[in-house]
Design a protein that fits this description.
The complex is a heterodimer of chains A (96) and B (474).
Chain A lengths: L4 H11 L8 H16 L22 E2 L7 H10 L3 E2 L2 E5 L4
Antiparallel strand pairs in A: 2-3
Chain B lengths: L1 E12 L36 E2 H13 L3 E2 L2 E2 L2 E4 L9 E4 L6 E9 L5 E13 L3 E5 L2 E5 L6 E7 L6 H18 L11 E11 L9 E6 L2 H20 L3 H4 L4 E5 L4 E4 L3 H4 L5 E2 L6 E2 L2 H7 L6 H12 L3 H9 L1 H12 L4 H15 L13 H12 L5 H13 L4 H8 L7 H14 L1 H8 L6 H11 L6 H12 L1
Parallel strand pairs in B: 13-14
Antiparallel strand pairs in B: 1-11, 1-12, 3-7, 4-17, 5-6, 5-16, 7-8, 8-11, 9-10, 12-13, 14-15
Helix pairs in contact in B: 2-3, 7-8, 9-11, 10-11, 11-12, 12-13, 14-16, 14-17, 16-17
The chains are: A mainly alpha (96), B alpha+beta (474).
Chain lengths: 96, 474
């Protein structure tokens, strides 16, 4: 996979991160190295391995359908939000 | 000539007590941001734990639509950035859903049946709600993390009529299983429609357009109609390639048009990958055994109503389409009303008196009350005609049925002694007519019956009167 300026711009958009002009070259280089490293995996022959193969055969734990609610915690979270009012989280308007 | 090709995605909110991955109560209409916790608010370090009831309900649904239940299913992470999802991703099942390859049958107008295949039903977490107000948006995350079963059909429907039949069947199955409230207005049964057109006879699938944001059967029909017209116009104008893109469009109920959701295409890079916070979900033999035993489904109930109560296919279809009305009828049976009268009094007399939107829960007449009226007809305490007055009166007044019959003086007199006395009196007062009758003017029988009915103020049982008059005149 070729990491170039176009791809980096797309990644910026998707990740909501801004990469400074002076760092772009370096980030592209690092990302290319990471991708090349991961590409090592394709040397493995996975022809006969199922898509859902996992190192452990454990299954996810499940819980009973019994409600609990600690209102202090959600009050705290709400109060620590950058902007909240009337028990709503407030964000900049998201539709035109 | 064009053919319409439609597939549906239905988001059914499962009616569990708690959310999909945390123990917060699921709620409708609770104070905003009260049913939240670090997990559904996606605080760092909080981990999802699967609600087992969600698996149970998925098994029930899969069984009802004759599908494969995957004993191992997997969760995947779908990334998207929007304030209704604090984690900026949704946990769903893309590659190996819990339910696959099912189908259900719809009954077409002409009496034939058509099978609509169900591609899959997968478990996923719902998002919160945004309220837009001036320069800001308010976010309520009570719904964030509520379990959804997304039911995806194959593109097997060819008209909006088939779409509505499919949705009604699916809706009643979900209600019969009691796995969801499936209330369209409250958003617990949300429908996305995928529509494309093709020249008749062509087997190829052309560009499909997804229409979102339609919350009633009526609007679904309308949305399909206007979107199909848009696609046909483009095809006929030779602008199909440019104008019809694979995209999501919103249906505008006021302007009666579908509109592109701008900018969504560019951002639609979901970067799906296996959810690292969850291992596979396993349906054990024991769990499968237990939850694949499901209650009677609408089609089964309908067939039973026809055979057990001698009901017409039509009435059975109407009554079983809604679980609540079917139960209403069954309660009347349990109360001891006769099936024949119960069917008429429920489908014609009661439902005819109720305005649209009234459900068994909001009906002023309970199943027990209607059964009491029907039983009074059955044992001839009142005539069918009098029963209509009783029902009308009961609609307006909270009162015992017996008391109403008494108050309105509608009790039929079947007491032969009382009727005989009345007949004797009337004969005595009309000796000339008695002679005429005995002389061969048999038409006069009606006169005597009428006089007795009048004297009894309509409360005499006409059948009994008829018998006595005939006997005495002979």
């Amino acid at each position: 996979m070729q990491v170039d300026d176009v791809l980096l711009s797309r990644l910026e958009k998707l990740s909501h991160l801004h990469i400074d002009e002076k760092n772009r070259e370096e980030v592209i280089e690092q990302l290319s190295e990471i991708v090349a490293f991961v590409d090592n995996l394709s040397e493995l022959d996975t022809q006969d391995v199922s898509d859902t193969f996992s190192m452990s055969n454990l299954s996810t734990i499940t819980r009973e359908d019994t409600p609990t609610c600690v209102s202090k915690i959600n009050d705290d979270i709400l109060n620590h939000a950058p902007n909240s009012a009337d028990r709503f989280f407030i964000v900049p308007k998201i539709i035109e | 000539m064009f053919e319409v090709v439609i597939g549906l995605e239905v988001h059914t909110q499962l009616n569990t007590n708690t959310k999909l991955f945390c123990s917060c109560p699921t709620s409708f209409n609770h104070t905003q941001n009260t049913n939240t916790c670090p997990t559904c608010l996606a605080l760092p370090g909080a981990l999802p734990v699967l609600n087992k009831e969600v698996l149970h309900k998925s098994i029930m649904f899969g069984t009802a639509v004759d599908a494969t239940i995957n004993r191992d299913s997997y969760f995947d992470r779908k990334s998207y950035f929007y304030p209704d999802s604090p984690s900026s991703y949704q946990i769903t099942q893309l590659y190996t859903p819990v339910v696959e390859h099912g189908s259900l049958e719809i009954d077409l107008e002409d009496g034939s049946k058509k099978t609509i295949r169900i591609n899959r039903a997968h478990i996923e977490a719902d998002a919160g709600k945004n309220i837009h107000e001036g320069d800001i948006s308010k976010v309520d995350l009570n719904r964030a993390g509520t379990p959804l079963l997304e039911i995806v059909s194959e593109p097997d429907m060819r008209s909006s009529d088939e779409v509505i039949l499919y949705l009604k069947k699916l809706h009643s199955i979900v209600r019969y299983l009691d796995i969801s409230d499936a209330n369209m207005q409250e958003g617990s049964f949300r429908v996305d429609v995928n529509v494309s057109i093709r020249p008749k006879g062509d087997e190829k699938l052309y560009t499909r357009v997804e229409i979102k944001n339609i919350n009633s059967f009526k609007f679904i029909e309308k949305a399909i109609e206007v979107e199909v017209a848009r696609q046909i116009d483009a095809w006929e104008d030779g602008t199909y390639e440019e104008e019809i893109a694979q995209e999501t469009r919103l249906f505008d109920q006021v302007k009666q048009e579908t509109r592109s959701m701008r900018g969504k295409e560019e951002a639609a890079d979901y970067r799906y990958f296996p959810e690292p916070d969850l291992l596979k979900a396993v349906v054990s033999d024991e769990m499968f055994e237990k939850y694949s035993k499901i209650p009677e489904l609408p089609d089964e109930k309908r067939a039973r109503f026809v055979s057990e109560y001698n009901m017409s296919e039509y009435n059975a279809g109407v009554l079983t389409a809604s679980l609540e009305w079917a139960k209403y009828f069954e309660t009347m049976m349990a109360e001891g009303a006769s099936a024949k009268n119960a069917i008429t009094w429920l489908t014609v007399e009661l439902q005819g008196r109720l305005s649209g939107g009234i459900t068994p829960e909001t009906s002023p007449i309970s199943a027990q009350t209607l059964a009491t009226i029907v039983k009074a007809i059955d044992d001839k305490t009142i005539s069918g005609k009098a029963a209509k007055d009783v029902l009308d009166y009961r609609m307006e007044n909270e009162m015992e049925i017996d008391a109403i019959i008494e108050k309105l003086g509608l009790k039929q007199v079947s007491d032969t002694g009382a009727i005989e006395t009345m007949v004797d009196e009337i004969m005595a007062a009309n000796m000339d007519k008695v002679e005429q009758y005995r002389g061969g003017k048999e038409k006069l029988l009606g006169f005597f019956v009428g006089q007795v009915m009048k004297a009894s103020k309509g409360s005499a049982n006409p059948q009994v009167v008829n018998e006595i008059v005939t006997k005495k005149l002979a």
